[in-house]
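Friendly challenge for the regulars: who can give me the structure tokens for this chain first? No prize, just bragging rights.
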Amino acid sequence: ASPYIRSRPFEVAIALLATMRFLIFTPILTTAWTVAGPRSNLSPGAFTRSTSLASSAVDEDYTVCVVGDLHMDPRKMEDYIIGREQFAPIVADAKKKGNCSLVSLGDLGESKSVRPQETSELFAGTTECHELAAEYLGSFGIPYDVIGGNHDLEGLDEFTTDQENLDVFLSSHGKPHMQFCREIADKTLLVGMGSTVFRDAKYTSHEVTVDDAQLYWFEKVLQDHPSSEGWRVMVFTHAPPNGSGLRVLQENHVVNGCCWLNHSDEFKCRKYIELVREHRCVKAWFSGHFHLGQDYQDSITFPSIPKEQGPYPNRGSCVFVQTSVMRGGTSRDGRQQSRLIRGNKNGFEICTVDHQKDGEVRVDATITYTDDNHEVGVYNHGDITAAQDELFKVYAPSAGDDYHAPDAGYVPYTDEGAVKILEDIHVDSKKWWYMSDGRVLGMLKGMLIEYDRSTLAPLGLVVGADELVGKKLAVIDSGLDDECEISNEEGMEGYDCGGPANREQAVLIYDEVTGTTTVVQPNEDGSYWRKIVRNKMVRMKEVRRVKAALAFAAEALGVDNDEVKDKVVSSWGPYMSTSGTAKRTGVAGLTAPSAL
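First reply, four minutes later:
Bragging rights claimed.
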């Protein structure tokens, strides 16, 4: 039977090997569960790398070196060599005190050609890329674990399928499966999950998609290692989970639907934070993906904060941690930094290794366990900011709690049961509200955004600034209160009314000057954010078709080369362009100026 379709329960064999001190897991799956994506090679056997730690896992002290998105380029190895040399004394000292290991958060290769004069083939995801990364990570002199990011199966010219690409990733790094679990100290686990989908992505190929088998395995690991028995789990993924509260890139990862783990799947996207809330053994969660530095306080978020500082964040017992990048030229804010975890039975420190300051180690936060279910986190410094850092700050709604009112951007319903934004919307407008079904919409930087109903984390773009700025907005009832109107229109026979418990609503964008009104229709599943960035394979084919059309227009129709790009347009259903970044939602000639 396929390892991705589980229709009957499996018994779990959990064996602690005394000589090698690592765990073996076989997942329990009690419900039919289908995975769209490549095999993760799940089989009864070790889910842990076979390399043993330098000392036994019963040691209390441990150190974990964490490197973010490497994006290795064989032409630009200097920063990697320097970074490894800066880690060398840290590793040597850590080995004297206890266990030490390395975790790579994925995105191992540069997503460009590294030999542009010879080939246009992207380096990321190729055999050459993974062999180089494996050699580099193995050169630190300590066991390493690695998980896949959104670029690690991007070997499009070399491999036809995600499965072929995944097999090379796994074999290069000596991994039996994408996920890993290592017991770094007594009852302290390092657990990682990676992305296994690129070519087969339903929407953007750069969504970090953890397959169903890994997710089920992860839940089983948490169930079998409860905090009540003293277990502590540190999780590593390329992208963070929804609800982490970390600083994000609104105009890149959020609007494109590749910000959070399993971003485009409403259930799975929220599943991770629900597991964190349920299982208080999860003490820390490290991620990369955003290429942002570690100098901001919101590069680390605590599970709880003092009441006087704001509403309870509801993040279980987990500290979420953003990890920067090592190489210059890959950072979005100029920082070059990695992470360091130094822990023992009483808690752990989260540190920065600053590669621009000769590998200086700075303690960013100290976490002290107060009991098996609680801890106290303390920031060791405030924001260390530069002039450009304001560009990366993103407003997030706050619903408040028993002690705090919702933030100033919250828009309550009027006495008539409507939401009305009466002033013209501009790029600085910050408003948000609940729809009757519990979904959350709001405005930010001139865009209409949907937020997760549980965490209020941004999910994606609903309406772009190109058709929203300068307009007004209203949410009104659209169902009939008194009676149901029976339609006679062919194909539309039946009810045309909303029920009182979950009344129908219409989101309207209108222009008082022209009288133009746009109805913002939800998706079929009731969500609003537009999944308008497609799979990269699809977009690459579209680009080739456009290039062929440009050549045709120039040669067959005699269109001047200076004008041909303005004369050739594409038509898609709801799609706007071949771009991998969602920027506009306006319909040319209707809600936005015509393209021709």
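The longest strand covers residues 360-371. The first helix runs from residue 78 to 97. Your move, everyone else.
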